Amino acid sequence: MKKLLFVTTFVIAGLSQAKNVEPKNDKEDKKTEKKVADSEESKSESTMQCRQVGMFVWCTQEMLSDTVCWGAGSGTTTEEQAMDDSLHNSQLVTEFFCGGQP
Amino acid sequence: MKIYFFLFLLTFGFLFSQSNNIESEYEVIYKVKIYSDTISKTYANEEKTSLLIKNNKSIFKSTQKAVSDSIALAIGKKQWNTPVNGKIILDMQNVPIVKFKDEVYLDNGKQIIYKELLKTKFSFPLEDPIQWKIGTETKMIDIYLCKKATGKYKKRNYTAWFTDSVPIPDGPYIFKGLPGLVLDVSDTNNYLSFSIISLKKVVKPIVLLKDVFPTNYQNYVKVRQNLLDNPAGTISNQTGIKLKPEHITRINENARRFNNYID
């Protein structure tokens, strides 16, 4: 009985670990593949890139200009983060120029 | 023998503690009505909010949040990838503004309040839950016989209507802890009110707000006051956008019109 409980415990723990580990391995594999495929992209992200962004304020028909950068030295790692940040800024500007909740 | 049995139980305990994906059993939809300007009280914002409940846990948030986020991302991505003369033009006028941004997570009687101020999300524990006084007055809301309860939170007095027929001690926002579900609650000036739209058995994930800055109520109020003292300056600092004097005037005047601060 002792042995049975002991073995069952380890089998369950082992299975659960295997279950938990499998997706991680998949992720790591995908990451490796992605790393190879995106090597050029990551190279370009290691240098700073900037874009001009205009935020349209519909209630005043004005365009507020901003320069958005990402990559080394910019404080923003990826273009996706830079985009998210700009979208949030544009939403805040719209709210505070045209009405919203502080 | 005992040690093996203990080891066996411990393993199961560990395994179950790993799965923290909570799904709701019930969803209560409330309409929130909030007057943004308590001085003129001319226009009330209305929005649907959702309370997802599973046993002694729940999350309360606006249903508009997810809608607004997904529309902003869809519109924004398209505009980001189609620059005009080399410049990205972002136009967010078709993105619905979320009127009630606060969220509340209830876990075994303890409430965590989530609030957003510009680009920062804060979380803090509710230190002084409402001490309700249950009255004798009753009224029908939909098919439910409700009892009246009154209580004070910060500087406002609230009246809640709860029903014993749904023995869930929960309700919208921080209005919880009564012996039945709160179906309707409002402050005495009616600056803020919640009224039930539906109660259904719904399975949805209970997801907490991410990337939050944990603090306490006092610190949150200080940050809010700094924003209210200088709205345009704070926005300019946080977004990095240079504002002209006429922009500063406009933003500051707009901000003053939104003075119904919900504690």
Task: Name its key features.
heterodimer, A: 102 residues, alpha+beta, 2 domains, two-stranded antiparallel ribbon, 3 helices, B: 263 residues, outer membrane lipoprotein receptor (LolB), chain A, 12-stranded mixed sheet, 5 helices, 13 strands
What is the element layout, followed by pairings?
The complex is a heterodimer of chains A (102) and B (263).
Chain A: H1 2-37, H2 39-46, E1 49-57, E2 62-70, H3 79-98
Antiparallel strand pairs in A: 1-2
Helix pairs in contact in A: 1-2
Chain B: H1 2-18, E1 26-35, E2 44-54, E3 57-62, H2 64-81, E4 87-91, E5 103-107, E6 110-117, E7 120-125, E8 133-141, E9 144-153, E10 156-163, E11 181-187, E12 192-201, E13 213-214, H3 217-229, H4 231-239, H5 245-257
Helix pairs in contact in B: 3-4
Walkthrough of the structure:
The complex is a heterodimer of chains A (102) and B (263). Chain A has helices at residues 2-37, 39-46, 79-98, and strands at residues 49-57, 62-70. By secondary structure, chain A is α+β, with helices and mostly antiparallel strands. Chain A folds into two domains: 2-37; 46-98, no CATH class. In chain A, a hairpin with a 4-residue loop joins strand 1 and strand 2. The radius of gyration of chain A is 25 Å and the shape is elongated. Chain B folds into two domains: 16-215, outer membrane lipoprotein receptor (LolB), chain A (Clam), CATH 2.50.20; 217-255, no CATH class. Helix content of chain B is 27%, strand content 37%. Chain B has five helices and 13 strands. Chain B has a twelve-stranded mixed beta sheet. In chain B, helix 3 packs across helix 4. The N and C termini of chain B lie far apart (56 Å). Residues 5-19 of chain B have low confidence and may be disordered. Chains A and B meet through helix 1, strand 1, strand 2 and helix 3 of A and helix 1, helix 2, strand 4, helix 4 and helix 5 of B. Strand 1 of chain A pairs parallel with strand 4 of chain B.
